[in-house]
Amino acid sequence: MRIAELSRRTGVPVPTIKYYLREGLLPAGELTSPNQARYDEAHLHRLRLVRALAEVGGLSIAAVREVLGALDDPEKSLHKAMGTVEVAVSSPVAVAEDAVAHAQAREFVERQGWTYRPRSDAFQSLVGVLATARELGHERFVGQLDGYARACGPLAEQDLDYVLGAPTKDAALEVVVVGTVLGDAALAAVRRLARREASGRREDAERGSAAGEGDREAAGGAAEGDADCR
Amino acid sequence: MRIAELSRRTGVPVPTIKYYLREGLLPAGELTSPNQARYDEAHLHRLRLVRALAEVGGLSIAAVREVLGALDDPEKSLHKAMGTVEVAVSSPVAVAEDAVAHAQAREFVERQGWTYRPRSDAFQSLVGVLATARELGHERFVGQLDGYARACGPLAEQDLDYVLGAPTKDAALEVVVVGTVLGDAALAAVRRLARREASGRREDAERGSAAGEGDREAAGGAAEGDADCR
């Protein structure tokens, strides 16, 4: 197919496809003439993957490149792919060394019975968040962590089951990549939906009356600004 | 204090502070001469807040502006602030209408006993993620949602408790803002730590032997690529 059809079938504008081609995220098509290339189903799938990572997952182009590298890696190690994706999806947090935040993060990790890995991106990211909370005077924030851990334990098992349920090794690699990125995006959306519900329920409870659907809709409507009017 | 001290105490480079000033995220200091301004503790706190939102939270400048607007809003409505923050932290997902994905999202929401709000950002975001999963051939993905909902119910209650635990109304507004943005960042970090642990445990189980800390460290080390070597 030509680039116009690639664009039509994926919803990605032609200039964006050309950008991805220039950045090497998408392999070149087969040149049928000096100015025209043809693309096949593999290009289609790769383009959809790039779109999923960049637009739905919000990854930078550099991060997308890292992740695609893991997929194309002949070694095809699941653990390596998981590691690459994890690093790619996390935004680096420049952390000024905050000893108290570091200690809080360490105590938290050890309280869960987890291994203390101070040089890992995830641990450093957590220290950065705790340091930021402290610097803003939010001393209570650290108390939120145990609840997060309680939620994340089952989620981690679920994520692994999903990855390991893939039919082939090649499929598993892509499942790791897509599952992680889309999983994070889905979790964020579900989290917002759950918060909206909880917030609406508390509003109803405060009102004290048997609030009908109309009231809940109005209360819920206020919670997302103009969003419902789009 | 002068801008150099503001920079030193927050870790934000002077050019970045000047950028925030130009963008109106930070109010101008008090001019003491045509080329010099003085800043006070309020500026310091505001700058830390901007840094938390933009650098730790990863919000765009436009989103930071929206969120600060909610904080400065004389009406000081908690629900309005929550709504503004929620919209600001979510990346808009351009959704080509996918009826199957929409139906999947609706069934999911109704299965939880939640209100179906098809025009809300959160719902549309979920539809977009499901549509992307389907388009990539990941038919199993929708099965992950119920587990996410189970985790997010308690998290939503916890988030609300945190917000409502603030001492004053002004403090509550900032807690909504910071709690949401930092909370998401902390949850993402904890999620990665939990996944790392779960992955390591399964590796140990596969090995079958009584894997010691050394083995787990090695197994865990592979899961984050070069991260541990930084």
From TrEMBL, chains A, B:
Any idea where the HTH merR-type domain is? 1-70
Q: Residues annotated as region Disordered?
A: 194-230
TM segments? none
Per the UniProt record, the lineage of the source organism begins with: Bacteria, Bacillati, Actinomycetota, Actinomycetes, Pseudonocardiales
Q: What is this protein called?
A: MerR-like DNA binding protein
Q: What InterPro entries does the database record attribute to this sequence?
A: DNA-bd_dom_put_sf, MerR-type_HTH_dom, MerR_fam
PROSITE patterns named among the record's database cross-references: HTH_MERR_2
- Which SMART domains would you find in this protein's record? HTH_MERR
Cited Pfam families: MerR_1
> Would the keyword DNA-binding be found if you checked this record's keyword annotation?
yes
Residue ranges under compositional bias (Basic and acidic residues)? 195-218
Taxonomically, which superkingdom?
Bacteria
Q: Which PANTHER family match?
A: HTH-TYPE TRANSCRIPTIONAL REGULATOR ADHR, REDOX-CYCLING DRUG-SENSING TRANSCRIPTIONAL ACTIVATOR SOXR
Q: Which keywords annotate this record?
A: DNA-binding
Citing just one GO molecular function, the answer is: DNA binding
Report if keyword DNA-binding is assigned: yes
